[in-house]
Write the structure tokens for this entry.
Amino acid sequence: MALGGVAVFLGMFAGWLWHVGLQLHQAYAAAVACHPAGSTACSELVLIFNATGGMLKGGFVLQPLPALVGAFVGPVVLARELETDTFRFAWTQAFGRWRWTLAKLVLLGIAVTAIAAAFSMLVSWYYQPYLTPGRLYSATSPLHHWLFDLRGVAFAAWALTAFAIGAFAGMVIRRVVPAIVATLVGYTGLAVVVGDVLRANYQPAGHFWSAQATEGGGLLALSALLIAATVWLAHRRAA
């Protein structure tokens, strides 16, 4: 249910982003094609481009999305069943508690990652005019920290990490709402630390994919560790 709600939310958001993105790309193409560049007509087209999608220009509005995706899916996986005692039936079946936990986490983790990866491709397309060098402005660096985590493998990796944090918090706390709060706090702290360590916006633009691989690989390893710890706790803990 939670994953379905997240999918619907991202789907609606993606539709809006696609609509605004088409306007942004059209405005960019018109401004670039206009000649002479210093004419009044061209200046007006540049102003239209700068005003289109202005709320999303820096990328910071989208930064909470991976955290929200993970926070509203991860804790619900286990915390709701633990809080309502519905886990007792599943754990008494031949399937076993640790296999039941692992199956739920892996399947949902894959689904969250796939949805986030698809959304990330749309985000990359949306921001392309801001990342293309040209005469309209100085292009934003693809390694700028507000945009870096929204593109490539980073967005999906962060969504998976938020999910894994949420699942672990749900297993430890065993209550949905406190687990959601703990997930958001833990995610925020991790994001601040990673941003300070990588300092992506100070690296050459050509390091984009190597930095993506480093960050994505580290987050994948952390997610696997958290999922393993969650499964271990499910195996060790009595009802």
Remarks:
- The chain has a mean pLDDT of 82.
- The CA atoms of residues 154 and 216 lie 5 Å apart.
- The radius of gyration is 21 Å.
